[in-house]
Amino acid sequence: MKCKVAPLFGTALAFLLFAGTGARADFVDYTYSWSTDTPGIASDNTGTTTISMTSIVPAFHHIPSNLSDTPVASILGSLTNLTDPSSLDTFGINAPPKVFTLTFRALPGDHSATPGDLLAAPSLTFQGFFQGAIGAPNGVNPGFTSLVGVLDPNAQIVDIGGGLILNVSLTGAVVPSGPLPGGLSASSGSIGSLITFGQGQGGGGTSDSPEPSTLVLSCLGLSFLGAKAWRRTRKQNVPA
């Protein structure tokens, strides 16, 4: 009796390929925070407008590892003691720019991490300053601003443990609008960041999906085994 190996091989091959494509995607779990050592940056005209910078409390993220994350690095607000709405305050023009520092910290996983936990976590430090003017060129448009954020342009890499490497950079500053007389600015601004993921020491995240090279080698090995079994069966069925 002839043994039909080819259909069995085809079924096994299809099962292998289906198993690879049906697996779930890999996710990254990490907790981060941003903090600043410069909560307020005064304008060149001392005692007038101050840009406030807010630290970002620990936040837990669960996202696909093939995507990038874009958390806010700092919230910016404009506080003012101006009584004249036509005033225009400058930053880094009539005096040297005041440099601020933003510190990024992160831990793998751990959605319950506190600010104290993150103080001992791996960290990165970025610097920047503001340059330009904020306020109104006249009393008609109190929302006018020509202020820009000059940020550290270099991406930095940190291994936070658990087999997870983060590539972190600052992406830009959306500055607050000009101050309104006697209160807060018309709108807040922010500094953004960009984070991408890589695998570090210790293994990284788990995935049920086999590597493409593993699939190819498995299929080739099965092919050779199937061919060998077919030839052996054929020789046994040849009349003496």
Commentary on this structure:
This protein has 3 helices and 12 strands. α1 (5-21) runs antiparallel to α3. It folds into 2 domains: 27-199, no CATH class; 210-240. Strands 1, 4, 6, 7, 8 and 9 form a 6-stranded antiparallel sheet that branches. A 6-stranded antiparallel sheet has the order 2-3-5-12-11-10, with no helix packed on it. It is elongated, with a radius of gyration of 30 Å. It has helices spanning 5-21, 115-119, 212-237, and strands at 27-36, 40-42, 50-54, 56-64, 72-79, 88-91, 100-108, 123-135, 148-151, 156-161, 164-174, 189-199. The chain has 240 residues and is of the alpha+beta class. 20% of the residues lie in helices and 39% in strands.
Concise summary:
By secondary structure, this protein is of the alpha+beta class.
Helix-strand blueprint:
Elements: H1 5-21, E1 27-36, E2 40-42, E3 50-54, E4 56-64, E5 72-79, E6 88-91, E7 100-108, H2 115-119, E8 123-135, E9 148-151, E10 156-161, E11 164-174, E12 189-199, H3 212-237
Antiparallel strand pairs: 1-4, 1-7, 2-3, 3-5, 5-12, 6-8, 7-8, 8-9, 10-11, 11-12
Helix pairs in contact: 1-3
Low-confidence stretches: 11-24, 203-217
- Mean pLDDT level: 75
How would you sum up the global shape? elongated
Secondary structure category: alpha+beta
N-to-C SSE string, H for helix and E for strand = HEEEEEEEHEEEEEH
Features:
single chain; about 240 residues; alpha+beta; 2 domains; 6-stranded antiparallel beta sheet; 12 strands; elongated
